[in-house]
Amino acid sequence: MGLFRHSLLSILVYMIIGLCSSYQSLANGANTNQTAKLLVNAVEGSGHRASETLFGLFFEEINHAGAGGIWAELVSNRGFEAGGHHTPSNIDPWSIIGDESSVILSTDSSSCFSNNKIALKMEVLCDTTGSNICPTGGVGTYNPGFWGMNIEQGKTYKVVLHVKSLNSVSISVSFTSSDGSQILATSNIIAAASDVLNWTKVEVMLESQGTNHNSRLQLTTTRKGVIWFDQVSAMPMDTYKGHGFRRELIEMIEGLKPRFLRFPGGCFVEGEWLRNAFRWKETVGPWEERPGHFGDVWMYWTDDGLGYYEFLQLTEDLGALPVWVFNNGISHNDQVATSSVSPFVQEVLDSLEFARGDSNSTWGSVRAAMGHPQPFDLRYVAVGNEDCGKKNYRGNYLKFYDAIKHAYPDIQIISNCDGSSRQLDHPADLYDFHIYTSANNLFSMAHQFDHTSRAGPKAFVSEYAVTGNDAGTGSFLAALAEAGFLIGLERNSDVIGMVSYAPLFVNSNDRRSFQMAGAISNGFCLKALLLWNPDAIVFNSWQQYGTPSFWVQKFFAESSGATVLNTTLTANSTSSLIASAITWQNADDKNNYLRIKIVNFGSNSVSVKISVDGLASNSIDSFGSTKTILASVNLMDENSFQAPNKVVPTESLFEGAGIDMDVVLTPHSFTSFNLLRNSGKSSITEVVRPVEYVSSS
Ligand code: AHR
Fold first, then answer.
1. First to last CA, the chain
2. Which residue, 240, 177, 235, is CA-closest to 209?
3. How far, in Å, from the CA of 270 to the mean position of ligand 1?
4. What is the predicted pLDDT for the residue at 531?
5. Dist. CA 518 → ligand 1 center (Å)
6. Cα(520)–Cα(385) distance, integer angstroms
7. Rounded distance, CA 78 to CA 83, Å?
8. Tell me, what's the pLDDT at 686?
9. Residue 572 gets which letter from DSSP?
10. Report field, pTM of the whole predicted structure over 0.90
11. Is 271 in the pocket of ligand 1 (CB under 6 A)?
12. Full set of structural domains in the chain with CATH
């Protein structure tokens, strides 16, 4: 009896474990009796050519993706404007070193920069002699940057500041640990009163003697007097292509081979109120003269060091094309009437002249003075973001459309209105399509464009992601559904011009979001409540990793401009498979490749017979072919700073490569078969298996 009870208990325990693991564990032991056939039609001339700009990136200033993110500026609130234009104002995150008996920090409007008048006034009460001796190390102010500055041994940083004083000054500029106890690098500014009587720009190069990921910048003195500071910047000398971007973050997106960069947002472009929307003219020219602004959708201040020019420069450095999303006189809460929108239209025409105009033109000369005499290759603009349903959208849109087409007939104009299921009622070259939804929904939306009219403007799927419970802060489940969705988009790339995931970056110290209530497709931006999850790349001051969604995008890095082949998938039972196939020539090694991608979204493993029609039997080089798999033990697995490679693709040689292949897809997996085509033997001399292709599914 005892034994029986014990066995019963064990059986129960095993049953419970079994039940749990069939939900959680995806590794082994699943039913393998599912079979499928995949026919790939590689007959010369079949398939279609995907757009050269099919896969790209959407960058939004959200979650401190730019300020405190890809823009390498270490100082937060460098011009002391974040606290507003009235004094006294809050200088946060600047803070005091010393106490009120030795130093008083306040703000006034004495800056020499007319667009941003606030400056920091530092009244030093202690001295090197007398009754009030300054503490060792001095008194002053520090800036902790964006949740700590990453200062690294042997690296050099350029500190620029503007200073003014009625007396001679001796100021230490230092990088220290967060409590000031460890000095990583320091230099003294010593100047006679006559040298600093008027605002003076000072540059200091600091080479760090140590590494600390949570450092701060200090401005200290031991000398009594009054010193004003303004526009204090600290930049690492080592940035991506020397243009001020955080190298390791940009190298991650470079690896995706993006063909375009949509910027600078999203809702960020609109603003909760028009007065807080992104205004490009206030983000160009010398950085010291930029007023900065409070982004009231994602609720933080940006100094706008990362401005319109820097976005254009980044896009060029990535070898991508810019997609400039501009405000069309509509925010979340207010709208400019169409009859009054012409100043907004002129503002946008000026932005186009800035990007493309001759270096002698009014705005082209501003660009040239910033270091880029040649025009930028701006070919795409989007009129607003998620504004289609708003009262003045169509009226305003047409004003922008007509003016832009008149001045720049080649510029491609993107509408916010969804044309995937019905024709647009206004002219456009592309239309935005946004989707944030659950994993099952997104996977099933792989077929969203199957029945879209093949005539008319193409879709720009400019924001997509699995969000909500399925996504966590970047789950494997979300990525798998996105992989299926992207395969569907690739298959339909005759009607889809561009695709980008959203959002791209999150500083882990500042996730922003709204709560998801079902799917949002070309709806309205919702007000930020707490956190925005997930994002493709997570970083802090010194670390970064890709979420599984980031890694999925790597599988599509060669798809832009590739030939998308027709494929037909048949399965013995309802399956959760979706597949696509592309061929392309690698620009570096000049080899031709065939890539077959399959997502198995189901919990059974599936044996798939793959047949490639239209290639000679010896046309695949099995030694140069590989297989890449993205899979994980649990659906909700995520990467993290501690385990950045928990869910990443694994690549292995694929010896079974050929025109006939038997492969087994593990449950819940994304597999890419990367087949090297034999050079010189890839032409269709011998069509080994003529097959009637029905319409692809
Ligand atoms: O990607 C985050 C936000 O989602 C974007 O700002 C907006 O366009 C969408 O609602």
1. 58
2. 177
3. 10
4. 65
5. 15
6. 13
7. 11
8. 33
9. S
10. yes
11. no
12. 34-51+559-677 (2.60.40.1180), 95-236 (2.60.120.260)
